[in-house]
Amino acid sequence: MEYVWDKSLETGNSQIDAQHQQLFVALNRLVHTYQEGKGKDELKKSLDFLTDYTIKHFFDEEQLQQHYKYPDFENHKKYHDDFKKVVRNFSVELILKGASDSLMQDVQATIGGWLVTHIKGQDAKVAAYIRSHS
Ligand SMILES: [Fe+2]
Fold first, then answer.
1. Distance CA 133, CA 69 (A)
2. Most buried residue, 40, 73, 76, 110, by CB count within 10 Å?
3. pTM, full prediction
């Protein structure tokens, strides 16, 4: 199942929303790269892009939270840090075992599912907090 950004994922913070949209684009680019039968190098490139963009996005979001003194910052940062490990493990698995239908389905479901849950549950609260404190 393909995860795409839609209005139900909108937090109302334009910077956060724009980056979330890019994350879904990057995830789907990775999945399509696999479906098109591209080699390991191309796949690794797509996964590296997704990883780097995830790290950049989390960094920006954490800066924003600190700027507004978001009270749940520590927990939120922990969610981000844990997820970074999950994404990194996928990269390691890709290098060690190569791509497979089951790995790519796992990547898609885990990353896509996490994004949806995190955005709706956590980032929506961040955006609402920023809105009421700016
Ligand atoms: Fe977040």
1. 9
2. 76
3. 0.95
